[in-house]
Amino acid sequence: MVEKKFPENFWWGAATSGPQCEGSFNKKNKNVFDYWFEIEPEVFFNGVGPSITSNFYNSYEEDIKLIKQLGLNSFRTSIQWTRLIKDFETLEVNKDGAEFYNKVIDECLKNNIIPIICLHHFDLPIELYDKYGGWESKFVTDLYAGFAEKCFELFSDRVKHWITFNEPIVIVEGQYLYQFHYPKIIDGKKAVQAAFNINLSSAKAIKIFKDKGYSKGGKIGIVVNLTPSYARSNSEEDEKASFIADMFFNRLFLDPAVRGEFPKGLTELLKEEQVIWQGTQEEIDIIKNNRVDFVGVNYYQPRRIKAKESTVDTSQPWMPDKYFDNYEMPGRRMNIYRGWEIYPKGIYDIAINLRDNYDNIPWYISENGMGVEGEERFRNSEGIIEDDYRIDFIKEHLEYLHKAIEEGANCFGYHLWTPIDCWSWCNAYKNRYGYISLDLDTQNKTIKKSGYWMMEVSKNNGV
Ligand code: BGP
């Protein structure tokens, strides 16, 4: 029995990215991960790099058919800057790259699947880091805008939903704070400048999209990973710490994208610390005047925060962690494979926050999911992986999402990460997320129990 119906035309879908499903196969230029694997392969789980990943480059037709078979009506992937563009400054296009993305888009449309195309999924060209310092550089914001324009020019006759960046705060955290993306720098001031420049890049792409008429019949948004910030207690100190963490990790991108401005409290704090970004009035106006049409929200885990207890080493460069400590709440429910807390109510809290504080902007869940190691042990005699834990995980999140929609949240879809098991950066193929399993040796793809379950959910438009 279907107890919870979702709105008409709800997006049932799944998301992946170019670097993670098609990898570097037949690519002429390298991104930061391609390069990092070349110099430090041992960092990547079992030494598996981005060369073929899930073979989407060669098997996109079969893969899109499988996605169709799940009953999904929408699919997000990304265009790799390093695949499409041969020369980042003249914007000379690599013909193979353009042809590949044309075929992927056409195949989606042939199968009645809405393609949602992202322009940046952690995949900065290494050349732009080496020459200009990557996101630290204003010049790179123009190169990115040029790349975005090229994508609109080539594909916007068919692609009607664009995403400027996936999880921009993760780029900042990974590259400049916590060392999980190359170049693994620890430098809060550079992190802050990169955050400003990525916001500016996104706004520049939106400006081109709107000014040059690509927005006719199309929409553009950003995907942010929101980690609702929960204070350990309602003491003033814990609440303040949690408020600051929220400004840095959530609102640093959400606010400029939707409201056109940075949170005041955050800019004041960064000024006081003398780590505020360099930004001209003209740049601030570009951000202000070029906001997103919709938001994609990736939700995996909450952020639990307590007032700072450890001492801050003032001889070290400034870090946002100066104001808070992470809090390990006793009894929290964990996904032990990924080390992330499972907290389905977080999705409800996000929905209500967007409803009440962000003008109820249209949004969708662009990623949610559960990465599990060693799923082969759950394969039954008929060859199907019985991933009941994933079904439970999705169901619980959908229930909270449904409740929020009933209460007026403007959510128009739910995408799982990911349709087919794909490459997880440094974790490579350790944890599997898909509705469809991948045998890495044979590249065989088989639908999991959760995939069969999703067929019913999408058919019934509800759980
Ligand atoms: C998000 C990213 C995805 C994906 C997912 C799962 O942060 O947008 O690219 O990888 O998380 O995380 P992971 O692969 O690190 O387990």
Gist of the model:
This protein is α/β, with parallel strands linked by helices and 463 residues long. The protein is 41% helix and 16% strand. The protein has helices at 18-21, 32-39, 56-69, 81-84, 95-110, 126-132, 138-155, 168-177, 188-211, 236-259, 264-272, 281-289, 345-357, 388-406, 449-460; strands spanning 11-15, 74-78, 85-87, 92-93, 114-118, 161-166, 219-225, 229-231, 294-298, 303-306, 325-326, 334-335, 340-341, 363-367, 372-373, 411-417, 431-432, 436-438, 445-447.
Describe the model.
41% of the residues lie in helices and 16% in strands. The chain is of the alpha/beta class. It has one domain: Glycosidases (TIM Barrel). Strand 3 and strand 4 form a beta hairpin. Helix 3 packs parallel to helix 5 and helix 8 runs antiparallel to helix 9. The N and C termini lie close together (8 Å). It binds 6-O-phosphono-beta-D-galactopyranose. 6-O-phosphono-beta-D-galactopyranose binds next to loops.
CATH architecture: Alpha-Beta Barrel
Largest sheet: 8 strands, parallel, barrel
CATH class: Alpha Beta
Specify the structural class.
alpha/beta
Helix content: 40-55%
* Oligomeric nature of the chains: single chain
Strand order of the largest sheet: 1-2-5-6-7-9-14-16
Task: Tally the beta strands.
Answer: 19
CATH fold naming: TIM Barrel
| Low-pLDDT segments | none
Query: Bound compounds, please?
Result: 6-O-phosphono-beta-D-galactopyranose
Spell out the CATH superfamily.
Answer: Glycosidases
Shape: globular
What portion of the residues fall into strands of 2 or more residues? 15-25%
Cα radius of gyration in angstroms: 21 Å
Amino-to-carboxy terminus distance: 8 Å
Mean of the pLDDT scores? 98
- What is the number of helical segments per DSSP (H or I, 4+ residues)? 15
How many structural domains in the coordinates?
1
